[in-house]
């Protein structure tokens, strides 16, 4: 079976700036690809 080199299954990814618009899109993509997103950010 061919392995998907872009798979994020069971990978933990830390996203800095995750409370912004772009960070939110990154987090959604990570979760849809099977990853676990840790979100860091500040709202002032």
Kindly describe this structure.
One of its GO terms (molecular function) is mannuronate reductase activity. It comes from Flavobacterium gawalongense. The chain is α+β, with helices and mostly antiparallel strands and 44 residues long. The chain has one domain. The protein is built from one helix and two strands. It has one helix at 21-32; strands spanning 12-16, 36-40. A two-stranded parallel ribbon has the order 1-2. Strand 1 (12-16), helix 1 and strand 2 (36-40) form a beta-alpha-beta unit. It is elongated.
Mean pLDDT: 89
What is the radius of gyration computed over CA atoms, rounded to a whole number of angstroms? 12 Å
What ranges have pLDDT less than 50 throughout 5 or more consecutive residues?
A: none
- Domains, number: 1
- Element order, helices and strands? EHE
**What shape does the CA trace take?**
elongated
**Percentage of helical residues?**
25-40%
Alpha-carbon distance between the two ends: 48 Å
- Spatial order of the strands forming the largest sheet: 1-2
Number of helices: 1
Overall structural class, as computed from helix and strand content, comes to alpha+beta
Number of strands: 2
- The biggest beta sheet, please? 2 strands, parallel
Portion of residues in beta strands equals 15-25%
């Amino acid at each position: 079976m061919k392995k998907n080199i872009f798979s994020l299954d069971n990978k933990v990814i830390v996203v800095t700036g995750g409370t912004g618009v772009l960070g939110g899109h990154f987090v959604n993509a990570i979760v849809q690809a099977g990853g676990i997103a840790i979100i860091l950010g500040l709202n002032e």
